[in-house]
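Hello forum,

I keep getting stuck at the same step: I have a sequence, I want structure tokens, and every attempt I make locally crashes halfway through. Rather than fight my setup again tonight, could one of you with a working pipeline run this one for me? It's a single chain of 133 residues.
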Amino acid sequence: AMAQAALGAAGLHFDELNKLRVLEPEVAAQTAQLREECRAFVDKTAEFQKIVGNLIELVDQLAKAAESEKMKAIGARNLLKSIAKQREAQEQQLQALIAEKKMQLERYRIEYETLCKIEADQNEFIDQFIFQK
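Reply #2:
Ran it on my machine without issues. Output:
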């Protein structure tokens, strides 16, 4: 016991296996525990970084998917606008064609009425000519 006290005063200690140590057994145990806690902390930090990395990757993928869908929607909207404009142009062409055909119909009607009048006049003339003989 006295030898242990003398060694202790010199900063030397025996551990539970009776090996000579520079650190007190309690301090050595605390140091080992701290080392284990640090290792666990480093492991948890690495795991956290991995989780955050995965989360960032996922958010990136979602952002790309959202951007892609947005572009598709813009494309569809532009297509609909162009189809509407095409329909409008077609409708205007058809209205113009209808107006043209109506004018043509009116010309034909007048021409028909004129021809009917000429036919009636000629028939009357023929009838008079036949009755004169």
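The chain has one domain: 1-132. If your local run keeps crashing, start a new thread with the error log.
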